[in-house]
Write a structure and sequence with these properties.
Number of helices: 15
Shape: elongated
Number of strands: 2
Radius of gyration: 29 Å
Helix content: 40-55%
Order of helices and strands: HHHEEHHHHHHHHHHHH
Strand content: under 5%
Strand order of the largest sheet: 1-2
Distance between the termini: 14 Å
Structural class: mainly alpha
């Protein structure tokens, strides 16, 4: 007697395929990140309204004398020679947004803490433009209150970087970190992608701006897209990784951000440097996050709970869901098949 063979229902396969398509559609629906020029974004608009509570800053009233001109796109003064008021356009590089200044690291300062008190007179004397500009170590070197930022180590790395070696005194801290608007990001922002955009914009301010690039060199500005055409899935990498992950040498585990920028010939071009069991990303981009998690959950969870992609250790949430759906479908199919066999006996 031949046994009757029951074929599994085709609708089950169709349902599984539809679920897979829906999951992928939801997972990849987000729009790609776009970069913007931080200097343009932070420039004050004409008659910008101050939204920060200035009563908490003791120097706000005195600083306002400077922001009357440097906080706007134009300024006015009396031309005593001609006996009339004159309106002038403020150069973009000299426009400082009060709102951005008062949330920056130096928000408690008054302008003349760093600039000569002679700037209190207007019009400013022309020779003041030649005055010495302080660097980070001029204020922070040897200061125990800022020891956890490792300024001395950062300075040593910077002095050994390609920026310092090629451009010497022309390249200072302020080329990347505008003292008027710079604020700590990696330590305070839990959104890794915002940190990536913030830090990459610092690099792109020069490397994607011909005018700023020409301040340091006469050579032609390279096409960043073409010079990175070797990178697989370039758009995703640019949106998910900072420039410094591949263009700096990892020095110590103390300083949060590496500052020894390498020549382009020494840039990382090996996938396993980032996507391995001992990834460089955990030593740089996810360093602070990993340190925080490790202190709470231990070393292993410090690796597996970060957003870095480690081959063999990281999980793909979409694949996890698909696997569970397929597994549930198989179980239901077996149960359905078994139930029919029992009922047909």
């Amino acid at each position: 007697m031949m046994r009757e063979i029951y074929i599994r229902p085709s609708w089950l396969v169709i349902v599984l395929i539809l679920l897979t398509v829906i999951l992928f559609a939801f997972d990849f629906s987000s729009e790609p990140l776009q970069y913007e020029d931080a200097r343009n974004a932070n420039q004050a608009a004409p008659e910008e309204a101050i939204t920060v509570d200035l009563t908490q800053f003791t120097n706000a009233e005195e600083n306002q004398k400077c922001f009357q001109c440097h906080g706007q796109s134009k300024y006015s003064y009396e031309n005593t020679e001609q006996g009339r008021m004159v309106n002038e356009r403020m150069y973009n590089e000299l426009i400082i947004s009060p709102n951005d200044f008062y949330i920056s690291n130096h928000r408690t300062f008054k302008c003349t803490d760093c600039h000569s008190e002679e700037y209190e007179s207007f019009p400013h004397a022309g020779y003041l433009r030649m005055e010495y500009k302080y660097t980070c170590l001029d204020c922070h070197e040897g200061d125990e209150n800022y020891a956890h930022f490792y300024f001395e180590e950062i300075d040593a790395e910077f002095m050994a970087s390609v920026h310092s070696e090629k451009h010497s005194d022309d390249f200072t801290c302020w080329m990347c970190h505008d003292p008027h608007i710079y604020k700590i990001n990696a330590r305070t922002n839990e959104n890794i992608r915002e940190t990536i955009i913030y830090d990459n914009t610092i690099c792109l301010d020069c490397h994607s701006d011909y005018r700023r690039f020409q301040l340091l060199t006469e050579r032609q500005r390279p096409n960043l897209i073409q010079s990175h055409d070797w990178l697989p899935n370039q758009e995703l990498h640019i949106a998910s990784v900072r420039c410094i992950e591949c263009h700096t040498e990892k020095q110590t585990d103390s300083a949060l951000v590496e500052h020894k920028v390498l020549p382009k010939e020494l840039a990382v071009k090996n996938c396993k440097e980032c996507h391995s069991s001992n990834p460089e990303l955990l030593a740089s981009l996810y360093k602070y996050e990993a340190q925080e998690v490790r202190s709470k959950n231990g070393f292993f969870r410090g690796i597996t709970t970060s957003d870095s992609v480690v081959i063999g250790a990281s999980r793909n949430q979409t694949l996890n869901i698909i696997s569970l759906v397929l597994f549930a479908g198989v179980v239901l199919g077996i149960a359905f098949h078994t139930t029919l066999r029992i009922l047909k006996k």
